[in-house]
Amino acid sequence: MKKKKLLSIVLAGVLAVSCMSALTGCGGKSTSEAGSTTTAKSTDKVYKVGICQLVQHDALDAATKGFKEAMQKELGEDAVEFDEQNAAGDSATCATIVNQFVSNGDDLIMANATPALQAAISATADIPIVATSVTDYGTALDIDEWTGTTGMNVTGTADLAPLEDQAAMIKELVPDAKTVGILYCSAEPNSKYQATTIEGYLDEIGLAYKEYTCADSNDVSLVTQKACDECDVLYIPTDNTMASSTEIINNIAEPAGIPIVAGEEGICKGCGIATLSISYYDIGYTAGEMAAEILRDGKDPKDMEIKLSTDLTKEYIADRCEKLKITVPDDYTAIEAE
User: Fold this and answer.
1) Pick from 168, 54, 48: nearest CA to 111
2) pTM across the whole model
3) Which residue segment(s) compose the domain that 329 sits in?
4) For 309-326, what is each residue's pLDDT tens digit?
5) 312: exposed, middle or buried (C-beta count within 10 Å: 0-12, 13-18, 19+)?
């Protein structure tokens, strides 16, 4: 009897200890947790990404769309909080926007177009910057010896199509042309870079050229009229001011019978006859993938090479070419005018 009684006492003690453990380990609360009703917070990171787009037009809109969709695919739709701002074509507004991103402590800044990139790099040397729709990063960032990486908190994608091929396109489509008018905004350094570069290729194929520049959109009409009066064909590089003014340009060039070869699809749709174009959605998407690598994988933008589009398409506007009696080779793809 004594042994049975002792065994009962030991078993009771073990059960009591087990019950206490069960309360703390299997849904019960420990003494320190008693009375607490706080729910555990998720440790998943939500990244704050500021987007500064210089101006609203089809090319830049497509790049921003591609950027956002890539980041959401790579990181998850709920893992990225975008603050998307448009500077309405004003460089000073770009500076105001990116300075606010810095004040907000954003994790990354996306700069869409050269003035947005220049404003961003002036605002911060610490927050990663991923740019897109920038033609030449060496020019935009004043880097003398370009090696393919910036060496600073900047990386991204470029929108430069081969200028030699664009010069050849002018000769191919308008073989009787003697003088090419190069129309661009002097306030955009990448436009100047394209103008200077294509002039060398025009020299090689025996075409004369003249530059026609405007300081801002207010001068587009006057400058376009002068160019149409003095030239046989116009070339417009990837230029944000011109991209926002294609209706004005077309209303002058079309009645004058002056064909325009454009540096990108959006300008071509608005006022051109043809372009050798990249996809702005694609370069934006690639920039978004690069941004995800920085935030998720810890890549350093200073070591990430600037990426160029390799998917190029010869495109033309059938109606405009027909009106101007321009014969288009079979390797061109027809697109719709705006």
Assistant:
1) 54
2) 0.79
3) 163-277+313-335
4) 888 999 999 999 999 999
5) middle
